[in-house]
Amino acid sequence: MWYSMRSARPPCAIAFAPSACAAFINYGLVTGPMRDLDPYELGEAGSLFLTRPRLADHLADAATVQRRADDVFAAIRQGALNVEINGRYTLDNVDEAHVALEERRQARKAVIEIG
Description:
By secondary structure, the protein is of the alpha/beta class. About 35% of the residues lie in helices and about 20% in strands. The chain contains 5 helices and 4 strands, in the order ααβαβαβαβ. The protein has a two-stranded parallel sheet. Strand 1, helix 3 and strand 2 form a beta-alpha-beta unit. The termini are far apart.
């Protein structure tokens, strides 16, 4: 939450009680690297944990990748998972996709159609 808000300091020092236990999970660097993250300041707010999970650690082999992909597409077909497409581009206008990302107009999923 702190990372996505890009605040000057993490809200944990204000929002959490001294006995709080929480986790900060960074799923990527879409908006740039995390800066000004002081572990001592986080520690003042309680037992806080920071992690940066890697997808490769959860996909041990090709069979696992296939099984999980099959589960995702099955959930989409059944309507249990809704994937919102925020932009559609072709290879002819892929430069527009890059500009939209850089200007933060493209925040959700984009599809680049080939062919």
